[in-house]
Amino acid sequence: MITSSAYRIGPFEVESALVEHPAVIEAAVAGQDDPDRTQIVTAFVILHPDAAPSPQLAEELQDHVKRLTAPCK
């Protein structure tokens, strides 16, 4: 369980949302210590060979997870 700004976030839910994105093959999510929010959600993804890592893709993945789960995740 990840605790971020008093929210309890299950990593499996975020991982499931990430792998529903067409650019993602596999995902793992963990909490990273943060002095302001206790922890922040950190995702590690393996992309499809035709998907190129970029800041735009990272933002797209964040938006994708927010749409499928909740903005705090």
UniProtKB/TrEMBL annotation:
Organism: Streptomyces griseoruber
Residue intervals passing through the bilayer: none
Pfam families: AMP-binding_C
GO molecular function: ATP binding; fatty acid ligase activity; fatty-acyl-CoA synthase activity
InterPro entries: AMP-bd_C, AMP-bd_C_sf, Mitochondrial_ACSM
Family: Belongs to the ATP-dependent AMP-binding enzyme family.
Swiss-Prot/TrEMBL GO biological process terms: acyl-CoA metabolic process; fatty acid biosynthetic process
Name the UniProt record assigns to this protein: AMP-binding enzyme C-terminal domain-containing protein
Keyword line: ATP-binding, Ligase, Nucleotide-binding
Gene3D superfamilies associated with the record: 3.30.300.30
AMP-binding enzyme C-terminal domain location: 13-68
SUPFAM superfamilies: Acetyl-CoA synthetase-like
